[in-house]
Amino acid sequence: MELTRAQAENKVLNRIIEVVFSSTDLDRLLSLAADLILEAVSGDACFVYLFDDERERLVLKGATEPSREMVDRVDLALGEGITGWVAEHKEPAIVRGDTSEDRRVKHIPELGLERYTSLISVPLVSPTDRLTGVVNVHTVGPREFEAEDVAFLEHVASLAGAAIEHGRLIRELGAKERALQDIIARTIQAQEDERRRVATEIHDGVTQQLISIWYRLNACERFLGTNDELAAEELESAKGLVDEALDEARTAIYQLRPSTLDDLGLVPALEALASRTLGGEYDVSIAADLPQGLPSHLETALYRIAQEALNNIRKHAGPCRVELTLESSSANQLVMRVADEGLGFDLASYRRARPETAFGLLGMAERVDLIGGRFSMKSAPATGTSIEVTLPLERQPADGFDAA
User: Fold this and answer.
1) How far is it, in rounded angstroms, from Cα 290 to Cα 376?
2) pTM for this structure?
3) What is 261-392's CATH topology?
4) 121-135 pLDDT, tens digit each
5) Which of 48, 73, 163, 183 has an alpha carbon 20 to 30 Å from 26's alpha carbon atom?
6) Letter string b/e over residues 126-149, b meaning 16 or more CB atoms within 10 A of that residue's CB
7) Rounded distance, CA 278 to CA 197, Å?
8) Kind of pairing, strands 384-392 and 333-340?
9) Which of 90-94, 142-146, 391-395 comes out lowest in average pLDDT?
């Protein structure tokens, strides 16, 4: 018995549901979805575009034969062609008859669109109303797409949009999990390196000075009563070594945890840091408009990021003007900017050539990401460098994570 249209559509819908929710492989999902959509609508070609948020482009990710080889090789801007129009307006579009009569249509020779006459295009929208892409169905001969065709394709598109969002979230979650594991590994390694550095400093500095003090005091003890002048000299030498040992200990302690953060707060600590790091060769200005009582993990994170940024300026920018600003926004966010007017560099070239051991910029970005913030950097030769850090004020640090 011949199936009614509703029965045929239900059958195809069941197959689409089975496909879109049985796989997190977006490439396979979209390829199969294109074939099933084409079968359901009885068209001649189907193209599925996904919206790339970073590039703000619609990228061809699914296609029926003979155009499947063009996947990932065709992309469109929002508003470009009828596909871009549908994405921009999040509304379906229909071309009945000659597509050349619709000014929104853009013929893409690589896809052979000139051989098609009719078109139905529907946006892929996630359950959270996020644009995920566009589905296009073409026919060679003129076709009067009916309201039922639009309703059915919109239903399919909503399923596909949900599945694509699901797949993206799983992929992003996997990437974040891998990044977190990498951060944890780096953190553990950094802690071990820091322990090794402090142990070396204590051994080579404080410990050696304590040994010298011990010998001086022993000598002083021997001379007491027999040669008070030599005893006084040894005692003075011991006192000098005590002062040096105290300085060494204070330096080691400060590098582990800046006391000015606890004693004076973030802004005075940053002023002291800038003075100590850059000295008098740099024209430094610091401006802050911050709420009272910032969480200590945010203060520590901002201090460490500024410390790395100022060290980079000292190493690479050359003497120049430096501006460090901190402010809170109406969106309950805290923003820190560190900008210099130094030598600058080609950021793209640096990213391509960066050695695996160069963790400065990466470390700043990872620290920001771990506490739920955003990190951005701009630089170009002869124009200086600027970084911007945006942190949420209400977010708490992950359990067991020491932001220092």
Assistant:
1) 21
2) 0.47
3) Heat Shock Protein 90 (3.30.565)
4) 999 887 778 888 899
5) 183
6) beeeebbbbbbbbbeeebebeeeb
7) 23
8) antiparallel
9) 391-395
